[in-house]
Amino acid sequence: QVQLQESGxxxxxxxxxxxxxxxxSGGSIISGTYYWSWVRQSAGKGLEWIGCxxxxxxxxxxxxxxxxxxxxVDTSKNQFSLRLNSVTAADTAVYYCARGLQGxxxxxxxxxxxxxxxxTSVTVSS
Amino acid sequence: SSELTQDPAVSVALGQTVRxxxxxxxxxxxxxxxxxxxxxxxxxxxxxxxxxxxxxIPDRFSGSSSGDTASLTINGAQAEDEADYYCNxxxxxxxWVFGGGTKLTVL
Lengths: 126, 107
Known about the structure:
The complex is a heterodimer.
Chain A: E1 3-7, E2 11-12, E3 18-25, E4 35-41, E5 47-53, E6 59-61, E7 69-74, E8 79-84, E9 93-104, E10 109-116, E11 120-124
Parallel strand pairs in A: 2-11
Antiparallel strand pairs in A: 1-3, 3-8, 4-5, 4-9, 5-6, 7-8, 9-10, 9-11
Chain B: E1 5-6, E2 9-12, E3 18-23, E4 30-31, E5 33-37, E6 44-47, E7 61-66, E8 69-74, E9 83-91, E10 95-98, E11 102-106
Parallel strand pairs in B: 2-11
Antiparallel strand pairs in B: 1-3, 3-8, 5-6, 5-9, 7-8, 9-10, 9-11
């Protein structure tokens, strides 16, 4: 049973970088074709997909965050990470890591996030 | 703003059937996935693909799709089904996108 656990500082100053790590346990990060993903949720708001990385190094980012965002996978540590530069109060949120997969039926592809971490709260404040 | 549109709130009487919908152009090309989120908890996948349920998800949850609209149906809603529900799909612009979420109240 694969489990994910986020870690990182709960408080970041404005204009600094936010760095979070997601540790994968119960399975290898390279055992399949996965999209190692980050999702965030501001207080009282909906889920916002941030971006993902495959172990190949291929990444996809939300266009609104792309200029500030880096997601990477460290296969030696069975971890993947998020770095968001130049943060503002708008980046205050609960950040979730999740495992994404692709499937295919007769007509359509589909993508889904099957395993999630419990989330970690990040506040941007001086 | 989300490229997938959901009704902000839906209510259902205990034991009755409720349908939660999600609309967007990307759903003409990809199936949606659905997530249940209870207060203070991480989202949980309840439906993916055409109509697949992960292990442990009750069979009262089902999914369907037609044109640009995906639906999550709960047959015989229970009190424990009260939660926020989000749809999610691949998107040509953002790669992955969530709907704005639907708050389900079980009366």
